[in-house]
Design a protein that fits this description.
124 residues; 39% helix
Length: 124
């Protein structure tokens, strides 16, 4: 599992690659939570790019739930994009489709969250 981040104006795109399961869920949590520190109303918004996430177990879902709960009191926006079919099915079964706003692509999410970030993503 790998986590990387790219900033476009006030949006941080956090890409997750590989699998998240009980073996690396704590590592995923440690990698993800610092990116949420500035996720609040009027500050950063975070897009989770899951296009290269192959699988997520209940332990990984727990970390995602913690992340969502972390930003909710601060009125931050944390959305997920580009779910692979297996991950999409896991989100649907576990009802995470009610926890996260889902978008088809990073660009769709950027357009919805921040016109400035969407414009920057085309130039950068």
């Amino acid at each position: 599992m790998q986590v990387s981040a790219v900033r476009y104006a006030d949006v941080l795109v956090v890409a997750v690659k590989g699998r998240i399961d009980y073996m690396n869920a704590e590592e995923f949590k440690a990698a993800l939570l610092p990116h949420l520190a500035n996720c609040a109303a009027g500050r950063d918004q975070v897009v989770l790019d899951l296009s290269r996430l192959e699988y997520v177990s209940s332990a990984g879902l727990r970390v995602l739930m913690i992340a969502a709960k972390e930003v909710r009191p601060r009125k931050g926006r944390l959305v997920a994009v580009s779910l692979q079919p297996v991950v999409q099915e896991i989100f649907e079964i576990s009802r995470f489709t009610l926890v996260f706003d889902l978008f088809d692509s990073v660009q769709d999410a950027l357009r919805a969250l921040s016109p400035t970030a969407a414009a920057m993503s085309h130039t950068g």
